Amino acid sequence: MHRRLLAVLVPLAVLLVAALGVPLSVTVAEREMQETYVDRLGDVGRFASLAETALSAGRTEALHQELARYHELYGTPVALIDTSGAVLLGPAGAYQEAARHEPELPRIVTAALAGARSEPSGEWAPWDDSALVVAEPVGRDSEVVGAVVTISDLSKTHDRILVRWARLAGLGLLPLIALVAVAWPVSAWVLRPVRELDAASSRISQGDLTIRADAEAGPVELRRLAESFNTMMDAVENAVQRQRAFVSDASHQLRNPLTSLRLAVESLEPHLRTDGDGRQVYDVAVDELKAMQRMLNSLQASARMESMRTASPVDLDAVLATRVDRWRALTATAGQTLAVEVPPGLRLLEPPGGLGSVLDELISNALRLSDARVVEVTARVVPGGARAGHGKAYAPREVVTIAVRDDGQGIDASERAQALRRFWRSPRHQNVSGTGLGLAICADLVGAAGGELRLEEGLPRPDGSGHGFAAVVALPAVPREASSGAPAPQQG
Known about the structure:
five-stranded mixed β-sheet, 11 strands, Heat Shock Protein 90, alpha+beta, single chain, Helix Hairpins, Beta-Lactamase
């Protein structure tokens, strides 16, 4: 997270440094060029004064030697030209060679012969290789008899500009380096409570209500946020615990009176007339009492299972090894066939309360409610994605799906969403024993492990009238450690 913060701060700092550094760099370049121009202007002014004296006195030998000496020392050709543009004094060859590469030279010379001092020529940028041409008229006004012209190579000036720019860039990098050096630990310190809150929220979404944020680290605002978060979680945990305690205590406290009531009702059986309506009322009362006892048992089981909120890795082979034989016995007793097709070596995140309990409930539904002939248990690994698990989207990874399918009655697509609600029962199953809590509890437990329980079409019915019922459990796959050894043999 602090990398993203630096990705915002560093470009802003770069823009700020560039906004200050670019004008300063331009100013430095202009100053260097101005100094070079002033130096050349002073030189040609001096040579123009000497040339005027030499021409008026007719003694040009000394001036010619001085112009040649200047060229030898500085490598800059300087020449005295007449009004026709011909070289009178100076290194004519070097001057003419340099003049061929300067398209601005004729304009500058023409202006000097007209009595005007020239402006500097060429671009003032270190990447431009044009020379600096400076011309000074010899004489005054209408008495101009020639001009002194220099053609200066600006490579050394450009080198100085680049060196100055490099220094400025180095100075500009110092605050950027200091910003990164300071912002990295500071941003980590500021954002650490945010990361801890994010991790705590993730744990809470998986059902762990005991997690709390660190309210002693980070800025004052984040510490206050962590304290508010902890206070909120205390209230939520207390409310959930009171709710579970109420369900458990209420079902437990009602068990004894309900048992006593059932015994009292059943004790009336010897006193009932065989040909009266009392027998029918008695049977209804006993059935209702049995249903209430099953409801209390389910509520207590729900409270116990929901109190276990820790998901842990488990080998599917180990779970099936303790279940498949029992499932086969139950299906055989009911006149059904059980088929188990599960590849070996699958490892997944087990829901709180155990994966075996969830599968037991799904098999029990297939046996009691579907009127099926075949029950099939399959498993496979599929690529993960943004699945909705208990109101939460988890990162894409591999998912193990375990499907329990049958070829029985099934339920309509419109009823599948309702089937995961507590106490909901299909109208076709009103006379079948059950509480309507099993699938809802399984869905909550699977969601607490970051998975999903969904209902789908099952196997085709033998008579071709449609499909049976299918419950599919999707749970995150857990990578198997290299040292875990070979997987256990698959049962069934």
